[in-house]
Structure formats: C-alpha cells, structure tokens
Amino acid sequence: MNDAQNLKLAALRREYTQGGLRRTDLTPEPLALFERWLKQACEANLSDPTAMCVATVDETGQPYQRIVLLKHFDEKGLVFYTNMGSRKAQHLEKNNKVSLHFPWYPLERQVSFLGVAERLNPIEVVKYFHSRPKDSQIAAWASQQSSRISARSILEGKFLELKQKFQNGEVPLPSFWGGFRVVFNSVEFWQGGANRLHDRFIYQRDGDGWKIDRLAP
C-alpha cells in the first residue's frame, strides 16, 4: 500500500448520530438491556444479529478471534456450540477465560462480555444438535474443525459419503461435538456519539448485584 492509499485510509471516518445512551436507559442488570438491544438488532434486519466474536488465548498467550453464533442466553450465561477438537475448544480447556463481542455497526452499538466458559452438559448438547438441519448435523461429522486439509474436495467428498450413510436414519451426535456456556462477570455497552463522544457503560458483578460505571470514550 502506497502513501496515497494510506492517507485515504486514515481519512475514513463518519459521525455517529443515531442516538445516545444515558443512565436512565440502563436496566438494573445487564441481560435485560442486552435482550432489548438484541431484539432491536433483529427487528432492524441486520445480517446475522446473533453473530459474536469469540476471543480465546493459547498456551503462549497468543490471542485468537473468530465469529460464532449465539444460540441461547439466560441469567446463567451465553451459549454457543462447536467441535470440541477445534482450536477455540482446545484453548478453553486450558484457559477458560473468554471474551464475547457483538458488533452491531449499523445501529452504532457494541456489547462486550467477559467471563469464563463452562462445558455444556450432554443433555443440552443432544437437544440442540438434533434441532439443527440434517445437512448441518452431517457437516459436523464431516469436518475435523481446525485440522489441516489439502483440498476442499476432500471435505466435500466426506460430506457426500456421510449424507449417503445417514440418508434414511437419524444422525447420531458426534462424540467430539459439544458446546460452552459463558458465565459472564462484566458487560460493556457502547453507543456511538457525535464528535466521538461515545457513550460507554460497564456492568461488573458486585456480590449478588451489579455495579454500573460510565467509561470515558
């Protein structure tokens, strides 16, 4: 990239004018506000409103990020599913601290959760696995997530082989497939503001309740 291109990149900016976030807008605990914002993201027809960036750290301290879909949330935590042989699952087995980030850019909003990931029990995993489309169930068998493959055709061939195998019956739950519940202890809400005076509020667990602070942008 030459200097002229760098200059254009540095000049890219826009004003955030969709509205502010005031303390009177907040709920006593963060999940109620998150639910309201998620509902509004769905009603705005955003692409993949449940998509979240999941950040983990390997044994050397190297961070990794990837987009995963939120599949359930309640007062116990936020749930996602994955191949337990995947890189993120292996990271979480050794260091279960995790960050989740929801980037709702068209609404000029972001939400970040910090917490620890706990493996889901088998009953929860089986129930969700069999609610998925059959092709998605088969794909879970076909892909050894994060392993190296020499060509896409190998993956497609395995998928077609398994589709033939399971065409007349139920797809069993793979032993290597599961999920995590992120038990959160900190949640930050970010709303874009004019002149870069964004509104940020952070909820942090405080005994049985939540402590709420405004953060400088």
Biggest sheet character = 9 strands, antiparallel
Note the overall shape.
Answer: globular
Order of helices and strands: HHEEEEHEEHHHEEE
Radius of gyration: 20 Å
Question: What count of helical segments does DSSP give?
Answer: 6
Low-confidence stretches: none
Arithmetic mean of pLDDT: 91
Roughly what percent helix? 25-40%
Number of strands: 9
The quaternary state of the protein chains shown equals single chain
Distance between the termini: 30 Å
Category by helix and strand content: alpha+beta
In terms of DSSP E residues, the strand content is 25-35%
Binding site for FMN: 66-71, 81-82, 87-88, 110, 145-146, 190, 200
Binding site for substrate: 13-16, 71, 128, 132, 136, 196-198
Catalytic activity: pyridoxine 5'-phosphate + O2 = pyridoxal 5'-phosphate + H2O2; pyridoxamine 5'-phosphate + O2 + H2O = pyridoxal 5'-phosphate + H2O2 + NH4(+)
EC number: 1.4.3.5
Keywords:
217 residues, alpha+beta, 6 helices, Pyridoxine/pyridoxamine 5'-phosphate oxidase, Split_barrel_FMN-bd, FMN, EC 1.4.3.5
Tell me what you see in this structure.
Helix content is 29%, strand content 34%. It has 217 residues and is of the alpha+beta class. Strands 1, 2, 3, 4, 5, 6, 7, 8 and 9 form a nine-stranded antiparallel sheet that branches. Helix 5 crosses helix 6. The longest helix is centred in the N-terminal third of the chain and has 14 residues, at 30-43. It is globular and about 60 Å long. The model has no long low-confidence stretch (mean pLDDT 91). Residues 177-217 form the Pyridoxine 5'-phosphate oxidase dimerisation C-terminal domain. Its EC number is 1.4.3.5. Keywords: Flavoprotein, FMN, Oxidoreductase, Pyridoxine biosynthesis.
